[in-house]
Structure formats: structure tokens, C-alpha cells
Amino acid sequence: MSPIRGYVFDAYGTLFDVHSVVEAGREVTSDPATLSATWRQKQLEYTWLRALMGAYVDFWVVTESALRYTIRRLGLSATEDQVRRLMEAYLALACFPEVAAALERLAGRPRAVLSNGAPKMLEAAVTGSGLTGHLEHVISVDRVKTYKPSPRVYALGPETLGIPAGELLFVSSNGWDVAGAKAFGYRVAWCNRTGAPEEELGARADVVVGTLDQLPG
Amino acid sequence: MSPIRGYVFDAYGTLFDVHSVVEAGREVTSDPATLSATWRQKQLEYTWLRALMGAYVDFWVVTESALRYTIRRLGLSATEDQVRRLMEAYLALACFPEVAAALERLAGRPRAVLSNGAPKMLEAAVTGSGLTGHLEHVISVDRVKTYKPSPRVYALGPETLGIPAGELLFVSSNGWDVAGAKAFGYRVAWCNRTGAPEEELGARADVVVGTLDQLPG
Questions:
Q1: Of A142, B46, B133, B199, which is least packed with CB atoms within 10 Å of its CB?
Q2: How far is B49 from chain A (nearest CA, A)?
Q3: Which pLDDT score, from 0 to 100, does residue A18 have?
Q4: Mean per-residue pLDDT of chain A
Q5: Which of A49, A146, A174, A177 should we substitute to test contact with B (largest number of B Cβ atoms within 10 Å)?
Q6: For residue B172, which of B120, B115, B131, B119 has the smallest C-alpha distance?
Q7: C-alpha A55: how far from its chain's center?
Q8: Are the beta carbons of B200 and A176 separated by less than 8 Å?
Q9: Overall fold of domain A18-91
């Protein structure tokens, strides 16, 4: 098998811990874990639905829509200030503890982020977590105005890096993203941080790791 | 506003009670409601994901994949016979109690089903619940090999009935389906059987009813 010539990382859940928004939720509910999980699930659903409808709006708008739905769904109430503070948690996400060293170990071959996130969200997360020097490319789906797992999104990796998908290692903690990237033609590592069951989408990761420091070099 | 010249109904959750599969679940779990709800959620996710990936398989295959995922996700075990019996519950769904009379009241204008269901699944559900004489058209997404809310699916309604979407009433109990049909151009009734909160997808139903006998005639 040909060597790996570059790395393409998913952002949310893979590099950045989305559930660090839990803390921000304490202001509006005594059960911020349920708020965070419901919000995340709805956020993903809205990306899939809007992509299929051909009704793209960027991830900041999707994320706020999903939050407003979640607040109503859980019977909570929140002021506009509280909504704003919950949204701002997305601009100050923590990365997982091993990420910087794991990226450093892969230096020498191009390292990219390919994410649903809107450009301003990705810039804030990458800068805020000190990863700027560890990433050669930060690619948002906003360039093609649709969402993962559309092949149009996955095509941005090879296009930007100038390397065929089959010589890139795509890394995601999201099982459905793993399936989408594999179906597109990447070599794929599933970073299964939570011991999640494998999705039944007809495409499997080439390698499964628990954290990013276990990636093949 | 122009009069309504025909009706297009979603099937699962709108005409047919998907949660009647709960009973079949008692054989493999003491909490069949969670099995049924998780299975349904995953089934929808897989339609969205496969449609976006361009990796269509029919709804029977998606439904079985979602069931197998759900069994693993919930830490259950099931024999192949039990999986088969759970799947067969989809061939023997009950319709909601008011459906036959509600369809009868709308007779004289074409009444269609437009559903994610595979042709054999729709035929079994329509025949088994005695609705054959109340429906002029049963349309499966299988004709276009993708899933709702793709506009290619919604286009099958006007094409089959020969009536513009703006003169058809699309009826669904699924909020995301309501948004998809409205964005396509139908007039839309949301049959909100469960008091669900409205989705935040930028398109609203023209009318909201609790059961199908409240539809505008």
C-alpha cells in the first residue's frame, strides 16, 4: 500500500471537545449534559437536512437554530443574552489534551482540518487552542455551500493538498463521517474516543484508535 | 389562493403508526419503547446520510441496518429469527384510527402517498391496513434512488399527479418533512400528532392539525 502523504482532520469531536459547551449550559438548566447532547444531535441533523434540501446556511446559523430548537424541546427558557453566551462557547472550544503533541509528531507532511464549521468558528477554535502552527490548511465546507457527508465536501481535501484521497489519511471521531470519507476514497482512521458502536453505513475505517497520539505516523 | 386540487401524504408516522413495532420489540428487551424510538431515529439518519453520500440502498435495507445498529447500541442481543420478526413488523403496520374516514372525506381529488418506503413495504402497509381503495397513487422514493428531503423526491408528487406543487396539499407528521415539502413549493399541512416543537429549518407549514380528520377539505 502507498505511504500516507498527508492528514485531513475533522474538527468537532475530533480535535475540539464540543461538550465543553456543557459548562456554558449551567446558566439555563440543571442538566447541561442533556442540553449539550440534544443541541449537538440537532445541529448535525440540520446540516444533513439543509444539505439535502439544497438550503445551505452556514454552521453558525445552523448551530443557533439547533440551540433555539433544543431550548424549546427541553422546555427551558433563555434570554437573548444567554443564547449569545451559549453560542460564544463555540468560539472558545478546548481541544482534547493530546492533540497538539499528536499533530507535532506528524509534522513534515501537510496537516489539514476539513470541517462543517463556518470560517470564523474554525479560526477561533484553531487560534484559541494554540493549534495554528500545527496545521497547514483549515478548510471549511463554506467553500462549496453544503455539508458532510457530501462528496463535494470530501473533494476539498485532495483539491487543497494536491494529493489523491487514497494517499491521505482522513481522521474523524464521528462514525458517519468515517463512512462518508471512506466511501469517497480516503484512507480513514476512526478516533473512537467514546467506545461508540460502529455505524452500519457500508464503509469501515482502515484503522481505529482511541486518541490521536495512536495514529500511524 | 387557488383551491387544493390533490393530496400527497407521507406514510410513516402520518398514515401508519411506526411505533406499533414496539410490541414486536418485547421479545428482545424489557424497554421496547427505547428500542423503537432509537431504531426510528437511526433509520431516518441513515436515509439522510446515504442520500448525501450518494449511496442509496432501499428503505428495507436501511431499516435493517438501523435495527442492527440499535441492538448493538443498546447492548441487546437478538437471534436472526428475532431480527426477522422485528423487520416483519414493518410489513404489518397499523394505520392511525382516523385515517380511512379522513381519506374518504377527501375523495374526488387525487390522493397519493409519497414515502421513503420501499415499494414492497408500502404495498404491504397500504393493503394490510385496508387503504387501497382510498389512494389513487402510492409513490416510493425508490423511483429516484434518494430520500426526503431531496427536492428530487418531492418532484415526484406533481409529476405523478400532473398538478403543480402549489395546488397540492402535502401532509406529514414529521417536522423536517414539512420543511422540505414547503421549501420545494407545496402547500403543507403538519399533522402534529405528538405536540412536537416546530423545527428551525426556515420553512413553516401553512396549517397545523392534530389528526387527519381536521384537514381542510
A1: B133
A2: 7
A3: 83
A4: 96
A5: A49
A6: B115
A7: 20
A8: no
A9: DNA polymerase; domain 1 (1.10.150)
